[in-house]
Automatic annotation (TrEMBL):
SUPFAM superfamilies: Nucleotide-diphospho-sugar transferases. It comes from Nocardioides panaciterrulae. GO terms for molecular function: transferase activity. It comes from the Bacteria. Keywords: Membrane, Transferase, Transmembrane, Transmembrane helix. This is GT2 family glycosyltransferase. The lineage of its organism: Bacteria, Bacillati, Actinomycetota, Actinomycetes, Propionibacteriales. Pfam families: Glyco_tranf_2_3.
Amino acid sequence: MPTTVTALLVSHDGARWLPAVIAGLRAQTRPVDRVVAVDTGSKDGSAELVESAFGAVLRLPGSTSFPQAVVAGLDDSPDAGPGEWVWILHDDANPDPDALAALLEAAEEHPDADVLGPKLREWPSLRRLLELGVTISGTGRRETGLERGEYDQGQHDQVRTVLAVNTAGMLVRRRLLEELGGFDDQLPIFGNDIDFGWRAAAAGHRTIVVPQAVVFHAEAAHRGVRRTPLTGRHTHYQERRAALFTLLANSRARALPFQLLRLGLGTLLRMIGFLLVRSVGEALDELAALVSLCSSPRQILAARRSRQGRQVTDPATLRGLLAPAWVPYRHGLDFLGDVVTAVTLQAQDVAERRRAAAAENEPPPVVRRPVARDEDVIGDDTGLVARFVTSPVALAIGLFVVLALIGARPAFASLAGGGLSPVPGQAGDWWRLWAESWHPLGQGTDVPAPAYVLPLALAATLLGSPSAVVTAIFVLVVPLGLWGAWRFLRVAGRLASRAGSPRLLLLWGAATYALVPVVSGAWGDGRLGTVVVAALLPWLAHAALGFADPDPDRRWRAAFRTGLLLAVGSAFAPGLWFFALLLGLVVTGAAAVVVRSALRDRSAWGPPATALALVPLLLLPWWLPALLNGAGRALVLETGRLPVAAVDSWGLLTGRVGDLGGPTWLGAVLAVLALLALVPRATRIPVLVCWIVAAVAAVTAAVWGGFTLDLAATSTPAGLGFLVVVLQGAFVVAASLGGQALARQLAPAFPAWRRGAAAVLAVAATVVPVVGLGWFVAGGHDRLDETAGEGIPAYMVLSSKEGPAHGILVLRGDVRHGLTYSVRRGDGVTLGEDEIVDLTPEDTGFTRTVRTLVSRPTPSVVNALGADGIEYVVLPAPADGDVAATLDATGGLVQASAENRSTRAWRVARPLSASAVEGPRSWLRIGLLVLQGLAIVVVAVLCAPTSERRRPR
């Protein structure tokens, strides 16, 4: 039976490759018997090229899919008999002269093969392997079995059975094409080869790959080199949709539910992966592909019905042609490796640019004794211990961290006391508090949860418990501050002078700043907001240095990193954003005077403005409801229990926020050192910048300090703890920069009086961190071990945890000096809830009920207590006798036992209302939470290093 070969060439805007493809087709050692050319709406002269080469071309509109083009080409050519083969070629697939001969020779040796495919190599590199047959994994990934970038060295030159072969160079019997109905119209451009091979295998036909036949393929559509009306800009969407359709249309019926679940979860994981590498478009394409198929189940069901009638192959045989089950996991590990590599390369790039900037005009090198450097402590593992013990700076850092951990020993226990409320029992309590629009606290309130609840909930989910989060913050604040200050001071020193700061000076500055939250008294008083700002501030300043990067892309990335860190800091200390805004206005005004052209460059002022604008967006679920619900005073409050300690001018200057701080003269010495840093001329300009920051902080403190907030339960000044940290940080940077110039005065070439003065200042500066660290290690300067209870019997506490309706009314004080009341529900007021309770306006109706209860109680008052969800009334020790006598005589109150004889308690013998503290749901808050979640994801992606996989153009 004679063998007839019909070459079917499909083209679309392929004029750049068609001359070589036509030449390759004509140069075949075994010529084709006829050529059928189909062009789908080319606009670059492709149709004319094919027509001049082969005499005729079938012209179709640009919306024609590849399956439709193949069917039209076959309909346009008469059937040459049962021995006819169809050789399908793309306009970017150039066959080797021996390709067709090798395919036909393999067809004679394997008469049971109905589909044959060549070895595909990359065009124009010609040596890199693309495919030797393809299959598909359970997650829809196209698998070739090749390593990335693998070159052809004859290592895969065995004819073997595969699931499918690429349509670029596919040799297929015409009767099989017609029997299977050609390629599926649901796969217009991608994935039709795997689907066709799967259907052919299920129908009992064999597909083999012939490595002796070579076709060079440019993969123009896949690489984005060519856009068609069928793909547009969303190539990845079409590829992913084709993969999902192929799996769902050809999978076994028993495995279909599991396959749907796996693809749904896999799509979510792939989206996260693409977001991690800043491929937002591809992440959205993943989601769109899944939604597209799920929204049209009839197409999947119709495709499955059309395939069921042709299933003759054993499913076990088909499974052998699919990718192994472990392949997706290997790709996951490869992806994690790519992310780590991208982050490492990004860090190396930043380090190289900084080293290049520092060494641009460095003085000639001086021969020195080879001593281990502190940078060597982190790096190669060879001789790590030896380098550590021979580096004085490394030893000093290690000793400092160990002593700081010893000083933080009170934080290893459960923390509560001072300004720090007890933490809830589980991370879910913080998540609930964050998501609720109405809180069952007191008599119920719609005051929004503070913004810092979200980062605390995230951290608690990762660490396992809320107590671990608070412990980690208070234990690690000094080491984190040391690390961040070291990084910032090293970069700032190199920006101030070419040589940068000496390492001993870096150690002094980093250690002095790291002790600021401790020596100031914020740590000992449990001021969580000030402690978190102290840990974040050097990292925030380091990120803001990216605004001066010469590369616009890095400036914009710095904007998102700075905005995200500023939002976290502002969540714990709301005034930080207002300070940053004022500082930004001052810097912008100075830039307008010094460099007027900078304001005309959007990439110069845009990143700082973007960083500032991100904070209200990321904190919108807190800011907007707080303003709408009359709780806008939260924007000037301190995190934690109220009232906060007032900070006067002297405390601001010396860095003290309460009565638990270290010796005041330490802060005074630091301020004097920062003032003397203005003397050296070499670093005067950067030191002036530090003093501008300090001046803005002082002005902000003067404005902030004028607020006195009268809340329902107390009066409190505005929180100034974060400004103390900012001011002390500015002093440390100024003194460090001035110390760079001072270090030169110690050289023997300078006069003795200068060297003597420099030595005295160096000794005075050393005293600050040494005494501060010693004071911290000595201990006994905190209120974090205060465990005084509320005087409520334990059985009442257990009862209150049954639900919000089992409230406890706690009365304190006496008739002579005045009575106060509070309502305990659940676990009591915990971290995050304390601010909500303090900002909730007084419930005047409930206050009248309590006032009547302790003065002229009536049965209706007791009934009102039950309706308000009050189960017990407690007078903690020492209980006022007059009030106790009044309550003893009140009908409806039954005396209850108390552990302390001086404590009096009563049970409300009235029905409790289960809906006493229920409130409405706010759809506005739900929408704001969704918006916040999306904004956090987008900003986090834009903060990541640029490692987006770019297709070659």
